[in-house]
Amino acid sequence: MKKRILKIVGITAAIVAVLVLGAGLWIYGQIRGSLPQLDGQLTAQELSAPVVIERDALGIPTLRAANRLDLAFATGFVHAQDRFFQMDLLRRNSAGELAEVVGGAVLDKDREVRVHRFRTLAERVVAEGSQADRELLEAYAKGVNAGLASLSTKPFEYLLLGVEPAPWKPEDSALVMLSMFLDLQDHQFRNERRYGAIHDLLGPEMFAFLCPLGTQWDAPIEGDAFSVPAIPGPEHFDTRTFDKVALGRLAPLDALPSTESIHVGSNNWAVDGTQTADGRALVADDMHLSIRVPHVWYRASFVWPKGDQGADKLAAASDSDAPADEAGPSKPNEQRVTGVTLPGTPALVVGSNGHVAWGFTNSEGDWADAVIVEEMPDDSDSYRTPDGPQKFERHKELIKVKGAPDVTMEVVSTIWGPVVARDHQDRPLALRWVAHDIEGVNMALIGIESAETLEQAIEQANRSGSPAQNFVVADDRGRIAWTILGRMPRRVGFDGRLPTSWADGSRRWDGYREPDDYPRIVEPAGGKIWTANARVVGGEMLDKLGDGGYDLGARASQIRDGLLATVKATEADMLRIQLDDRAVFLEPWRALLLDVLTPEALAEKGGRGELRAAVEHWGGRAAVDSTGFRVVREFRRRVLAEVSDLLVSPCKSADPNFSIAGLDRTEGPVWSLVTERPEHMLDPRFPTWSALLLAAADSVLERATQANGTLADYTWGKHNTTRIQHPLSQAVPALAGWLDMPAQPLAGDSSDMPRIQAPASGASQRMAVSPGREEEGYMHMPCGQSGHPLSPHFRDAHQAWAEGTPTPFLPGPAVHTLTLVPQG
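RE: above sequence
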């Protein structure tokens, strides 16, 4: 009997094992089935002529088409093959439709975004845009759906989530662009709201001091540097009058959060032919963004005939057994452009076309305004406008939630935009934003792909509907220029820094500027241009741009100095500046900390001597093995937070959610305070400024030793270790080893030096290229071309990016060739 039972158990266990193995093999087969076809031939009835897709050893495609519409189709096809889930999340992100596939965990995020009603706007962008834009977006959408249909099984993410991928629509590309608006400009309304609270609650003198137009770190290409205003006297602000209740709301130094706000930004610059080793102009670009898996950009090279000729030649080439041409300079009768694309859109974002090369940084001009809405005193459903009282518009938005009932929310709107918040006086605030207008989104960026001169590229940049960027461009004649890419509103009656009422019509937007009214710098006398999210210009040009929260300028000044010190520049020099991790900005803070750690202070408390030794031998770089760098950085952060937190405490009393974090230019006023040390600005919890600074130093020491045991273990690399994750692994950590990039300690910092690097953000790509000499340029980016973990190209580009190793700008020889042919 016992043997029989054991036999039954054994047979049952074997059956279970077979079933588990079979299920595992089935799941593996389903996942593997969503890998793309890379070779052979596929039929695509929407094409007018064959398209050849060549992929190199890193999976980077070169797309050869007979015309730009077929090229848009092919771009959508390869994007869907490699990155459809990423594209889906981008369109859902701006549409407020993530909960439909992810569930209730993201419902609040969907609610926050739905106030913009971007899905409705995206439909208008397609319906009311130009016929050329519409045809391009339709061709791209058809390509996406063909690429998705070409997969044997649905992308693996949908298998794990248990949902079906929705087809791509032309308006979805507009939604992807609107997701970039959210990433790059969503902070501007918050900044303006904070400015308003500081101005109203602390007074104009403190506003001017705490929110200066510039600091000693300014490095504009044109215009004078701004200085921080003088410290207001005690008649304007005096901390000695603060009551104990207000002080009790302040966090102690050792309770400050370990996380910090990060200013997402970018670097780019150009040097003209007089400043390079061989007389050609160079453009360098590294755009700083959150880094996720898969990566935001998708490398590609587009090739199509100039004009519409060439279909027959391409058809013949597709039937030939001859090897494909290696990447190289364009032939006389063809157009070639190489760089990075944004999956979900058909355009090349930054790159080079043989005649012009260009790069972006977020402009941080002012592209949004907080409008104070004046409710009618006798009718809370109406508000004042220049044309008399009007009723608020009310729209019902339906949010679908996976595994739960649908949710309905109401969006309240005005003639200027949606009501998105209430201010410290409980007044409604409406948002006027370029992203809410159909003028803000278009496909004019496509025109830069065919530009042959600076002037043509600048014109197309000024007409482009996109989040406004510092557009730096060089041409094959050795010339360089800067302007703004994206639409610029024309303000009337105000400068845009503070929330204002538009009820009487004296303050408004008067349409958008034409290209001849844009700020531009063409062929600067010094032969060098640089931008890094800081102020680029002054005077009338700055008036047109406005202040959208531009960076304090430390990064820009370090780049400027690196460029000015470079003689006869080469691509290697460009990479050297991009990887510059010298802590120039922190030098004054290091000196201040050493001044605080006097012999008397060292004798008072154990551990301070070790702290001073680490600071003395810090190495001057954001190096992974440096303890001193991390100590100085944390000391500055704690002093900055403590002092600014005190100064804005009246704002926090009026609005518990108020925070000054993220207003980068508070660096200037706080530095004035810790160096001049006025008694009427001192935190009353400390007897002297020296005591405050010493307490900050002790706080760093205590946190360092509590978390790591010894100060020697408190290295920068232990903090600055990459955490580059796939969205699914964030929800299911067990998938991390399969889906995430390896965790690596990296040099660089999250702000204020050229080499931007934080655990989950940093340089989304690095490139330097000379138009017409693309074969000598370099490009690298994190992760890999594919979003599929079973692809060899899922992470094969990552190590070069992590190490800062240059890889060729142009794709290499074809390893795989797939031909798309029209039906019939």
